[in-house]
What we know:
- By secondary structure, this protein is α/β, with parallel strands linked by helices.
- 38% of the residues lie in helices and 28% in strands.
- The chain has helices at 10-39, 48-72, 126-131, and strands spanning 6-9, 74-77, 91-97, 102-109, 120-122, 139-144, 147-158.
- The strands form 2 sheets. The chain has a 5-stranded mixed β-sheet. Strands 1-2 form a two-stranded parallel sheet.
- Helix 1 (10-39) packs antiparallel against helix 2.
- The protein is elongated, with a radius of gyration of 22 Å.
Amino acid sequence: MADKKHILTYAGLKQYEDELQELKVNKRKEVAQKIKEAREQGDLSENAEYDAAKDEQRDIEARIEELEKLLKNAEVVVEDEVDLDKINIGCIVRVYDVDEDDEMEFQIVGSTEANSLQNKISNESPVGHALIGRTIGDTVEVETQVGTISYKVLGIKRAS
């Protein structure tokens, strides 16, 4: 079975590449030093520092493997080439919530980068999925866990 493609923006790609570099270059050395120091303390069977360092090493290696797999299967959206006539991954969308009488803005990203605290919603989320392909002036009905929400598309722009 083929691995799932991970859709990323350039910013997301850079973030994951930087994290991978940090883990490989700095964190590996730090944890190797902790293990070395813990070994020098003698009996490893009752050495909490050694156990903690080995756990940290395992977690770092697992994250490195995860990031390498993610980056190997990454498909980067070129934000400068995004068509601003319709909503797509990489766009920042301004919508009007009809029910709440409120405007909001969020960026449509791949599921790997989604982060509601940064107003980044996944193209696979109910709202993201409903908005993909829509144009300014369109109104969409989105089925969510709390019921149906109506959004009117007010603007589409590139992420900067």
